[in-house]
Amino acid sequence: EDKVVQSPLSLVVHEGDTVTLNCSYEVTNFRSLLWYKQEKKAPTFLFMLTSSGIEKKSGRLSSILDKKELFSILNITATQTGDSAIYLCAAGGTSYGKLTFGQGTILTVHP
Amino acid sequence: GAGVSQTPSNKVTEKGKYVELRCDPISGHTALYWYRQSLGQGPEFLIYFQGTGAADDSGLPNDRFFAVRPEGSVSTLKIQRTERGDSAVYLCASSPIAGGGPTQYFGPGTRLTVL
Questions:
Q1: What is the average pLDDT score of chain A?
Q2: Distance (Å, rounded) from C-alpha B55 to C-alpha A20?
């Protein structure tokens, strides 16, 4: 059975801190690893990773994939209160992109 | 529309009733997915449509759940004889083509509460 595990489950930090969120996966016919940010209901897309060792970056967020060790990390530097959200990791397997999600990391950033 | 839309945004029903949840994907997106998200959990795959056909319904929990997409655009998720355990947020996502390349874009979800 496909499985994605995220850690930590929750994290409380102060503005300006740097955080690292972890995601490990076991997915048959792995194709891609995706990160989403969920603030209210709709998960919004952050990154999609398909190749090992290539960092993807968007502003203060960055992510990297290790296909040998089957994990990914999401880094957020200089956190802001607007970064408070649930961060979801999902692994895509099969030919049509069915996603298996982790349980999410709840990030709370205090002023 | 600009994004995936879902209606209603909230639905409260009584145990045993029938409900329909609607999803309007991004125009032109051929792939459509339904997920269910329970409190404190990540979304869980239910069913995938490529065009009009359900290509994978392996995530539907039982035969009370059914989904259609008759014209290859709007999809309806139907739940018969609802149970309290069906309470969750039902998310719909669409993608331009099937496959692991293009990402899935999610709608805001329908929060279903079964009393």
A1: 93
A2: 36
